SDR family oxidoreductase
Amino acid sequence: MNLNLETLFNVKNKTAVVTGGSRGIGAMITEGFLANGCKVYITARKKEALEDKAKELTKKYNIDCIPYCVDLSTVDGVNEFANFITEKESDGINFLINNAGAAWGAKLEEYPEDGWDKVNNINVKTPFFLTQKLVKNLEKKASKEDPTRIVNIASIDGIRVGNIGETYAYSAAKSGIIHLTKHLAKILVERNIVVNAIAPGPFDSHMLGKAVNFDYSFIADMNPRKRIGSPEDIAGLCIYLCSRAGAYTVGETITCDGGMVNTT
């Protein structure tokens, strides 16, 4: 037994993959890992911004942040990235953070099929098939004493209907990833791979920012904590789930929302 904080929450010398890791919640999680000695691979579709972010974070934390530009909304893109990770990390990775996402808002009568498909592809299909392609890689580092981890980034909109816009596909997709998390957890726990999800509330992100013109004041006023989420909030929770402290937490979806789901 070792209850020292540095042991309980240690992710040093581990390797993580964070999809959509160049901005928003993904960047917050990435920085949390890097700040604590964990190498991180990040993905995005915009190459220049992705590479600039990776260089910035590598310099800031003196830990490798490796960018890979890819469109993960297609199985071809998933296969390409999985092959890259398998080649670069032939001994396995420790953490897969399925964070990349998309939203689309439109009135019910006008909601387009391409919007529905885009949102469900990146929010549900991509995490499933990336998990499928990297599961053997995760198994290489997995053990009973130190399981590898998958953390799916869901949303409180998958638990209750949000107040901003008519985002039908997003709500459905995030509800789907919550249930998919439970199903994957049931199957993979026997292979020493622990699967959980986080359901964030409002954070400073490109997705939410566009919906509110990057003015978060009224969002903060509606929140029981009277603020939006911070990097410490989301990174801390993700590190918990990936550390020794979270090794016995399986198949859960933990809200990180200032109390929006449970107190309003």
Observations:
- The first helix runs from residue 5 to 8.
- The two ends are 39 Å apart (CA to CA).
- The chain has a mean pLDDT of 96.
